[in-house]
């Protein structure tokens, strides 16, 4: 896939160039260096798609030049207006097979619904309850749980606590950090007794097994059995009385965090954006920008429940919709920049739209904000990256950052 750097910043805008760029370099040199850094960041991030979901990535790249593209009974929706319309105006079958709701209901067996498969009054009631649990007061409480964990994980980056003599490279793998942070959030939200890392591992296994069991083609009894075992293991860790909705919260929180956080930090490091991360005035916009370009859930699978139209393309009841959040948010063309950010209405499309938008968006922003604030003084670089081929969402299996003294 080809991408183009953002061109709406003036040539003499302050540059967050790599650390080896001379501070007295002329504006043209700094602009060129900044563009090269952004290109390097895009290339690395593209690897999570090419290594873990190559066929899907190729399909999205081949069809993205049209706002909406029909392939048989499947519509690929790339345009932001059509994407938003599909989520807010077109009736959707939220329990259909191979949709988010259908897969979640099948995988997280048990009493109750899983929010993704709901509509109407039940959905509004459950979503209000979950939104309240993830509101401002909850974020403040969750911060007290994850801040000590964040400090402990990043301690090796400090000269006083790093390994070696203090003159070598000190590194941290951000994937275990993301697992522990997301597991800690789930524990605090659901009051479950399990340790963060096993809980996160079980939630990741449940999501990955569910995806494999719902791949197109003939039924896969072994994959379905594996998905059932993974779901049972997660429910066991969540504790007595855990229902399907609790399991859904765990799966969604863990998998999106483990996918997004390491990718966002790698994008920040590769693009040389630590100056923006260190600036309290710019950091909130940078968080939105990094979440936009990483698009943790890049594609939302849905099924139309009634006839309609999207982007001028007729839709029939039963048509499968692949809503490409990555393209709707312009992540494939517009690089992250807190000084010239995308409009919030566009950036926030990665969290969905309308009544089914992600209620955990505020927690995601707060978590990434704290991670960037903690890392910014070190200005780490990526020292090792390996894509996760098994995960439900595109992400890194290993993402190590390091700093030298």
UniProtKB/TrEMBL annotation:
One of its GO terms (molecular function) is oxidoreductase activity, acting on paired donors, with incorporation or reduction of molecular oxygen. Residues 1-45 are annotated as: Disordered. Residues 1-19, 27-39 have a biased composition (Low complexity). PROSITE patterns: CYTOCHROME_P450. It comes from the Bacteria. InterPro entries: Cyt_P450_B, Cyt_P450_CS, Cyt_P450_sf. SUPFAM superfamilies: Cytochrome P450. Belongs to the cytochrome P450 family. PANTHER family: CYTOCHROME P450 YJIB-RELATED, P450, PUTATIVE (EUROFUNG)-RELATED. This is Cytochrome P450. It comes from Streptomyces subrutilus. The lineage of its organism: Bacteria, Bacillati, Actinomycetota, Actinomycetes, Kitasatosporales.
